[in-house]
Write a structure and sequence with these properties.
The protein is α/β, with parallel strands linked by helices. It contains 28 helices and 27 strands. Among the domains are: about 5-110, DNA repair protein MutS, domain I (MutS, DNA mismatch repair protein, domain I); about 125-255, MutS, connector domain (Nucleotidyltransferase, domain 5), CATH 3.30.420; about 285-390 and about 530-555, MutS, DNA mismatch repair protein, Chain A, domain 3 (Orthogonal Bundle); about 425-525, MutS, DNA mismatch repair protein, Chain A, domain 3 (Orthogonal Bundle), CATH 1.10.1420; about 845-875, no CATH class. A hairpin with a 5-residue loop joins strand 7 (about 130-135) and strand 8 (about 140-145). The structure holds adenosine-5'-diphosphate and magnesium ion. It holds the Pfam family MutS_IV.
Length: about 900
C-alpha cells in the first residue's frame, strides 16, 4: 500500500510545527519557496491571489498547497498583516545539502499586526503600537504599550475599561495582548473595534530584559509590562536590545480628551476619510524628519497641563519664529537626518544593511551642523538643548572608516567593507585583483600567440574561467594548446591547467573575503548596538527640535500668536480663527471671531441659522486650547486662556450626519460622560444636543442639561442650539450668556455673516436654507405661509416649555388675549378651507396638502423639513 502523503516525514514535521501556531498562516520554507498547506493554503490562495495546487495530487489524500518564491515574501506578509492576520515564518535551520535526513526547520518569527517592523505597513510618520492589558483583584487595569520599531515602552494603570479603550483607540493600536485575567466580555469590546486580541500569560522575563521594568514601582504596571515582554520574546525570537526602559505615565498629566472628542475635532484623522488630510495634524506638520512627525502626533494626542512646560515650548517657538534664517538653515539640516529611532531598532534586530549604516552616518554628521545653527540662537533658550545633543562621533567615524559609500543591499555578498579597514581582507582583495589582472594578461598573450584577435577570457558560475574562441577561428588554435571544456553554437570554450590554478586562487580569495566581510560587518553592527541608547536619546532631541521648528513655521505661515496662559477662569480671544477651515477656504474669506467668557460666565448659548458657523466657532475654541497647551501659537490676534484639564465634545445625533451611525442613545451617553467627568477646569462643547429626538423632548433635555452644567459642573461650556426658545434662559441662569451668529436678509435672501454677536438670534431659518437649496418658489411660499400661521398659533397656545415656565412666573394674561386667541383659531380654519377649495382636483396634491396640514413642524429639525419638502416636491412632480 502506498504511503499516505500526510504520513511523509516532511508533512509530519509540518504538522508538529503548525500545532503551535493554530491562529497564524504558517509560511513553511522549502528550498527557494515558502509553501502553505491545508486550510492555510485554501484561505491564503484566495487572499493572496495565488494558484491553489496540491502536494502529490495522484495520492489518495492530496494536500492543498500554494506558495511563493522566498524573495517575494515581504509583499505577501504585508497583505496578510494589513488584513489583520498573523504570519509564522518557518525557516530551514540547516543547509539541505549537508542535512542528514529531514532538514531541521523552526519558526523564526511570528509577525502580527502589532509587532510588524520591517515592511511597508509602517508609515514613517506614525507609530505602530502593540498594547497589553491585565487586571488584578484591585479592579484596576494595568496597561502597557510599545512600538517595536522604535523601542518606546510605556505603562499606566487605568480605573475603567472605558479609559483603557480610550487609550487603545487613541494609540490606534491594532493588537492588544491580554492574559487570563481579562474576561471574554472585555476581549469582545476590542474585537468589535477591529483590534486583534492575542493571549499571553506572563512567564519569567529573560534576565537581559529585566532592567526594562526596574524603575516601575506599581506591581500591576510591572506585571503588565512583563506580559507584554513575554509576548514579544515568544513571537519575535530576536534581539530586543533597543527596547527602552519602561516609563510609567498618568493620563491625567496631560490634557485629556476621549477618543470621541478627538474624532470630532479631527485632530489627526478626518471624519470623512479617516486620513490625515484636512486635520489639525495636517496643518501642523512641517516636520522634516520621521521622528519629528511621530513626536508631533504624540504631542497632539497629549497636550500639556503644566504652565511651566507649556511656556518652555512657547519660548523656543518664539525664538525660532524670530530667526527666519536660522530656522530655515535648521530645516535644511534636519531634512538630511534619517529615522534614527528605527535605524537603532534595526541595529538591535540585526536587520541593518550597509545602506542603513550609511544613512546612520549621514544623520550623525548632521548633528554638528545642527549644533552650529543652535549656537547662533539665544543661549538662554537653546543652550541646554545644544549641550544635550550628542553627535555620537565615535560611531560616525567607525562607519566612515569601515563601510563603502555606496554599499549593496545584501550584507552577505561582499563589497560592503572599505579597503584599508582590515589587513586580511585587503590581502584577499589583492589576490583577487592580481588574479583578475593575470586573466587579462593571459587574454592579451594568448591573442598574440594564436593570432586570434577576438579570443576572450570569460567567467561563468558553472564552469568558472575559460578561454572562448569562435567557431570560425577554431582552425587557428594550435593542437594540444588548450583542453576543450564546453561547446556553444558559435564558439568553443577551453581551459588550461594554469588557468584552473589561478581560478581556484581567485575563487578561494573571493569566498574568504565575503565571509570575512560579513564577519566584520556583524562586528561593526555589534559595536553600534552598544550605543543604541545614545542614538535613541539623540533621536528624541532631534525630534523635539523638529517639532518646535514646525510650530514656528506654522505660526508664521498662518499668522498665529503666542497665547497668554492665565490662572483665573476667563477666556479672552480676539479675532480667533478655525485654522483648518481657514486654510481650506483661504484667509480672505474667513471671518474671525472673538470668544469672551469672563470669570463669571460659564456657558455661551449659541444660536443662529443653519450653516452659519456655530459648529465651526465651537471647534475653533477647542483647537485653540489644544494648540495652546501643546506649546504652539494660536490662530488669533490675541488670546488669553486658562489651562484646561479635559475637553469634551458632543455632537447632537441628528447633526452627526457624516458618521451616520450615531444614535440618540449614544448622544446621551456621551453627554452624560461629559457631565459626570467634567470639572470646573474643563471645556465642554455641546453642539445641538437634544436634536436626535422629538422637539419637546429634545428641548426639555437641552434645557435640563444647561441648567445642570450651570448649577453643578461649572465647566466652561459652549452650547449651540437651534431651539432659540432656550435663549430666555439667560433670565434665570446668571452665568449664561447668549451669543448668536449674525445673518442679514437681503431682498428676501439670507446672507450669513459668520460673525458672532452678543444676544440671542431672533429666529430659525429653516425655510431660508431650503431656498438656498434651490426649492421651487411655490413650495417655499407655501411653507412660509404655513410657518407664519404656526408661529401665530404657537405664540397663543404657548407650547414651548421654556416660555411656559417663565410665563408661569409672570402675571396672568389679560382676558382679551384669550379672546384674540380664539379669533385666530377661527380665521385659521377658514383659511385652510379656502385653500383646500382653490386647489385643483389632484390626488397627489391632495395627499401632500393633507400631509402638510398634519405635520408637526415644531417637532422637526431644519434638516427634517428639508427632507420632507424634498419628498413633497418629488410627489408633486419635479418641474
Ligand atoms: P452651523 O454649525 O451653524 O450649521 P458650520 O459651523 O457647520 O455651521 O459652518 C457651515 C459653513 O460655514 C462651514 O463649512 C464654513 O464653510 C462656513 N463658515 C463657518 N464659519 C465661518 C467663518 N468664521 N468664516 C467664514 N466661513 C465660515
Ligand atoms: Mg453645526
Amino acid at each position: 500500500m502506498p504511503q499516505k502523503t500526510s504520513d511523509t516525514p516532511m508533512m509530519q514535521q509540518y504538522m508538529a510545527i503548525k500545532k503551535d501556531y493554530p491562529d497564524a498562516f504558517l509560511f513553511y520554507r522549502i528550498g527557494d519557496f515558502y509553501e502553505l498547506f491545508y486550510d492555510d493554503a485554501i484561505k491564503g490562495a484566495q487572499i493572496l491571489e495565488l494558484t491553489l495546487t496540491s502536494r502529490s495530487h495522484n495520492a489518495t489524500d492530496p494536500i492543498p498547497m500554494c506558495g511563493m518564491p522566498h524573495h517575494a515574501v515581504q509583499n505577501y506578509v504585508d497583505i496578510l498583516i494589513e488584513k489583520g492576520y498573523k504570519v509564522a515564518i518557518c525557516e530551514q535551520m540547516e543547509d539541505p545539502r549537508l542535512a542528514k535526513g529531514m532538514v531541521k526547520r523552526e519558526v523564526i518569527q511570528l509577525i502580527t499586526p502589532g509587532t510588524v517592523t520591517d515592511s511597508n505597513v509602517n508609515e514613517a510618520k506614525s507609530n505602530n503600537y502593540l498594547t497589553a492589558l491585565t487586571t488584578d483583584d484591585t479592579k484596576l487595569f494595568g496597561f502597557a504599550y510599545t512600538d517595536l520599531s522604535t523601542g518606546e515602552l510605556k505603562t499606566s494603570h487605568l480605573d475603567s475599561l472605558e479609559a483603557v479603550i480610550n487609550e487603545v483607540v487613541n494609540l490606534q493600536s491594532k493588537e492588544i495582548v491580554v492574559d487570563q485575567s481579562i474576561d471574554e466580555r472585555i476581549q469582545d469590546s476590542f474585537k468589535k473595534l477591529n483590534i486583534m486580541v492575542s493571549h499571553q500569560n506572563k512567564i519569567e522575563v529573560k534576565a537581559e530584559l529585566s532592567y526594562l521594568t526596574q524603575s516601575l514601582t506599581e506591581k500591576l504596571e510591572k506585571s503588565t509590562v512583563e506580559t507584554l515582554l513575554t509576548y514579544i520574546t515568544v513571537t519575535q525570537k530576536r534581539s530586543l536590545a533597543h527596547l527602552q526602559k519602561a516609563v510609567a505615565y498618568e493620563p491625567s498629566y496631560y490634557l485629556r480628551m476621549d477618543h470621541y472628542s478627538k474624532y470630532n475635532l479631527e485632530l489627526t484623522r478626518s471624519i470623512r476619510s479617516g486620513k490625515k488630510q484636512g486635520t489639525l495634524l495636517w496643518l501642523l506638520d512641517e516636520t522634516r524628519t520621521a521622528m519629528g512627525g511621530r513626536l508631533l502626533k504624540q504631542w497632539l494626542d497629549r497636550p500639556l497641563i503644566q504652565k511651566k512646560q507649556i511656556e518652555d515650548r512657547q519660548i523656543k517657538v518664539a525664538e525660532l519664529l524670530d530667526h527666519y534664517f536660522e530656522r530655515s538653515n535648521l530645516q535644511d539640516e534636519l531634512v538630511k537626518v534619517y529615522d534614527l529611532e528605527r535605524l537603532a531598532g534595526r541595529v538591535a534586530f540585526g536587520s541593518v544593511n550597509g545602506r542603513d549604516l550609511i544613512q546612520l552616518k549621514t544623520s550623525l554628521r548632521q548633528i554638528p551642523k545642527i549644533q552650529h545653527v543652535l549656537s547662533d540662537l539665544d543661549d538662554k533658550v537653546f543652550g541646554e538643548m545644544l549641550a544635550k545633543l550628542d553627535p555620537v562621533d565615535d560611531i560616525a567615524d567607525l562607519i566612515e572608516r569601515s563601510i563603502v559609500d555606496e554599499p549593496p543591499i545584501s550584507v552577505t555578498e561582499g563589497n560592503v567593507i572599505k579597503d584599508g579597514y582590515n589587513a586580511q581582507l585587503d590581502k584577499y582583495r589583492d589576490a583577487m585583483t592580481n588574479g583578475k589582472k593575470w586573466m587579462a594578461e593571459l587574454e592579451a598573450s594568448e591573442r598574440k600567440a594564436t593570432g586570434i584577435r577576438n579570443l576572450k577570457v570569460g567567467y561563468n558560475k558553472v564552469f568558472g574561467y575559460y578561454i572562448e574562441i569562435t567557431k570560425t577561428n577554431l582552425g587557428n588554435v594550435p593542437e594540444g594548446r588548450y583542453e576543450r571544456k564546453q561547446t556553444l553554437t558559435n564558439a568553443e570554450r577551453f581551459i588550461t591547467p594554469a588557468l584552473k590554478e589561478k581560478e581556484s586562487l581567485i575563487l578561494e580569495a573571493e569566498d574568504k573575503s565575503t565571509t570575512l566581510e560579513y564577519e566584520l560587518f556583524t562586528k561593526i553592527r555589534e559595536q553600534i548596538k552598544q550605543v543604541i541608547d545614545r542614538l535613541q536619546k539623540l533621536a528624541k532631541q532631534v525630534a523635539t527640535l523638529d517639532v518646535l521648528q514646525s510650530f514656528a513655521v506654522v505660526s508664521e505661515n498662518y499668522h498665529f500668536i503666542k497665547p497668554t496662559l492665565t490662572k483665573n477662569h476667563s477666556i479672552d480671544i480676539v479675532g480667533g480663527r478655525h485654522p483648518v477651515v481657514e486654510k481650506v477656504m483661504g484667509r480672505q474669506s474667513y471671518v474671525p471671531n472673538d470668544v469672551k467668557m469672563a470669570d463669571n460666565v460659564d456657558i455661551l448659548l449659541i444660536t443662529g441659522p443653519n450653516m452659519s458657523g456655530k459648529s465651526t466657532y465651537m471647534r475653533q475654541l477647542a483647537l485653540t486650547v489644544v494648540l495652546a497647551q501643546m506649546g504652539c501659537f494660536v490662530p488669533a490676534e490675541s488670546a488669553t486662556l486658562p489651562i484646561f484639564d479635559q475637553i469634551f465634545t458632543r455632537i447632537g445625533a441628528a447633526d452627526d450626519l457624516i458618521a451616520g451611525q450615531s444614535t440618540f442613545m449614544v448622544e446621551m451617553q456621551e453627554a452624560n460622560r461629559a457631565i459626570q467627568n467634567a470639572t470646573p477646569q474643563s471645556l465642554i462643547l455641546f453642539d445641538e444636543i437634544g436634536r436626535g429626538t422629538a422637539t419637546y423632548d429634545g428641548m426639555a433635555l437641552a434645557q435640563a442639561i444647561i441648567e445642570f452644567v450651570h448649577n453643578h459642573v461649572h465647566a466652561k461650556t459652549l452650547f449651540s442650539t437651534h431651539y432659540h426658545e432656550l435663549t430666555v434662559l439667560d433670565q434665570t441662569l446668571t452665568k449664561l450668556k447668549n451669543v448668536h451668529v449674525g445673518a442679514v436678509e437681503k431682498d428676501g435672501d439670507l446672507v450669513f455673516l459668520h460673525k458672532m454677536e452678543d444676544g440671542p438670534a431672533d429666529k430659525s431659518y429653516g425655510i431660508h436654507v431650503a431656498k438656498l437649496a434651490g426649492m421651487p418658489e411655490e413650495l417655499l411660499g407655501r411653507a412660509d405661509k404655513i410657518l407664519k400661521r404656526l408661529e401665530i398659533k404657537n405664540k397663543d397656545t404657548d407650547q414651548t416649555l421654556v416660555n411656559a415656565e417663565i410665563k408661569s412666573k409672570k402675571v396672568e394674561e389679560p382676558a382679551e388675549d384669550v379672546q384674540e386667541k380664539q379669533n385666530h383659531k377661527t380665521s385659521e380654519v377658514d383659511e385652510q378651507l379656502a385653500l383646500f377649495q382653490t386647489e385643483p382636483a389632484d390626488p397627489q396634491g391632495e395627499e401632500v396638502l393633507a400631509q402638510i396640514r398634519n405635520s408637526n413642524l415644531m417637532s422637526m429639525t431644519p434638516m427634517d423639513v428639508m427632507n420632507q419638502l424634498y419628498k413633497w416636491q418629488k410627489k408633486l412632480g419635479n418641474k
